[in-house]
Write a structure and sequence with these properties.
With 230 residues, the protein is an alpha+beta fold. Helices cover 18% and strands 61% of the residues.
């Protein structure tokens, strides 16, 4: 009496990513995942779990790692933990998602929560979630959405010396902080929107977004879109 589906996969990934202005080679190995949906009548539940061994590398990162090791030799200390977190060599990364959609014909709603956790690397932990509710009136759909993104910043600089009189310590420390600062953000968005189904294959959309961003401050975004299917 339920609509169900289950999908599973195994694979790998190779590409390059831009991280705080530096290009890094990214790869995953032993990448596995499973996703399932369960639905009945007017509701559908979806959940998924993925994990992989993540590697990030670039010439700039390797030079910085060498600098950290040299710093350790100069201070007769072991900073291998900082290097391991910074370089992300076969570090475990996980992605978890759960979402619910409701559509009664007149009322629609959706909610989703996702987490990507690569805490052993400079990517840290990323959380995204939203809740949406809407109502249909004839050819119109009016909706409101509240969404949030929150990144827990990694700290590969933790434990490294910061001595103003020794420039190398300041440069390495500030570089690590700057990289992870650029990868973390916190943002809240409230969206008001309307959709008009002009014809069976054409929709006109209006939307206003009130954005509160940790770095960019408050913003208002107004958009109009015409969507067609043919």
């Amino acid at each position: 009496s339920f609509d169900t589906s289950v999908q599973a996969y195994f694979g790998s990934f190779d590409d390059s990513l831009s991280l705080s202005g530096s290009t890094a080679a990214a790869s995953t190995r032993n990448q596995i995942g499973i996703a399932a949906t369960l639905g009945k009548d007017w509701w559908t539940l979806r959940t998924a779990y993925h994990q992989a061994d993540l590697t990030l590398a670039s010439s700039g990162f390797n030079q910085l790692a060498a600098g950290i090791n040299q710093l350790g030799a100069a201070f007769n200390q072991d900073f291998s933990r900082n290097v391991d977190q910074f370089l992300a060599d076969d570090d475990k990364a996980t992605f978890v998602e759960i979402g619910l959609t409701i559509d009664t014909g007149r009322f629609v709603a959706a909610a989703e929560h996702i987490e990507m956790d690569a805490s052993d690397s400079l990517l840290g932990k990323n959380i995204r979630e939203f809740v949406m509710a809407g109502v249909r009136a004839g050819d119109w759909l009016f909706h409101v959405t509240a969404s949030k993104s929150k990144d827990e910043q990694a700290h590969p600089e933790a434990g490294l010396p910061y001595i103003a009189q020794i420039p190398d310590t300041v440069v390495i420390y500030n570089t690590l902080v700057g990289i992870t600062d650029g990868l973390s953000d916190e943002r809240d968005v409230i969206t008001l929107g309307a959709r008009w189904d002009v014809a069976s294959s054409t929709a006109l959309k209006f939307q206003v977004d009130d954005v509160d961003d940790q770095f960019d401050g408050d913003q208002k975004v107004f958009s109009v879109a015409l969507q067609t299917v043919f």
